[in-house]
Design a protein that fits this description.
- By secondary structure, this protein is α/β, with parallel strands linked by helices.
- It has a single domain, classed as Rossmann fold (3-Layer(aba) Sandwich).
- Helices cover about 45% and strands about 15% of the residues.
- The chain contains 9 helices and 8 strands.
- The strands form 2 sheets. Strands 2-3-1-4-8 form a 5-stranded parallel β-sheet, with helices on both faces. The protein has a 3-stranded antiparallel β-sheet with strand order 6-5-7.
- It is globular and about 45 Å long.
- The two termini are about 20 Å apart.
- The site of zinc ion has 8 residues, from loops.
- Zinc ion binds next to loops.
Amino acid sequence: MTGRGVRLVLLGPPGVGKGTQGRLLSALYGIPQIGTGDIFRTAVKERTPMGVVAKTYMDAGKLVPDDVTIGLVEERLAAADTANGFILDGFPRTAQQATALDAMMHRRGVPLDAVIEIVVDPAEVVRRLTGRRLCAVCQTPYHVESAPSRLPGVCDKCGGPLILRPDDDEATVVTRVAEYQRKTAPLTDYYRAAGLLRVVDGNADVETVFGRIRAALGEPVRPGA
Ligand code: AP5
Ligand code: ZN
């Protein structure tokens, strides 16, 4: 997948590794990873008007309203750095967002290339979320066991402090998973019907899962990956 750019969507419940794999795909293709959760967290930190609205929903584990989220993505996709493509991580998450994305792609005159659904066993998701640490500055995700930073509590990339995400406590995770099942899971049928869905088994280490995603996209895969 090169030449005319690559436009991907990463789909899957909280903690399956969308952010982790999105960063690797971004480096592979040289295109931006657009994580709506990341953008909302930055807005919350900067206390922008959008951040103030988003915070109440995020803290409760609920989805931010569609109009806010769609407007945000529309604006982000208008930026020049998306000319050769993008990786949407965590968008769309509702039928209305999926329809809006279709309209955006129609206006661009190029289709999505693939929607990658990452599937992970529930017990492993709990392990990943409870051990997750996030850079407060650049939002790179780490895991205390499976993806530790070189220096404890310090981001390898930017030196920022590693923090626990406020919505990773058990009660909020339960709500986030329920929101996913109710509002986002139906999108798999939508994208399967469109011939775009690629289901990837995420029950393996980061590199192995990345190899599976590359294979699903028809990219050459190194031996053993
Ligand atoms: P968002 O930030 O998108 O959260 P999420 O979907 O719940 O996903 P996560 O970030 O929790 O997990 P991930 O799949 O990215 O996993 P990660 O790579 O970090 O959204 C947060 C909130 O923002 C939402 O609740 C909502 O309020 C709002 N929002 C966002 N988008 C929205 C939208 N479109 N509409 C409305 N509201 C929206 O990995 C998890 C951990 O596992 C890490 O520690 C990582 O190091 C580790 N790990 C990853 N891969 C592996 C592996 N293969 N093996 C072992 N460990 C691994
Ligand atoms: Zn950082």
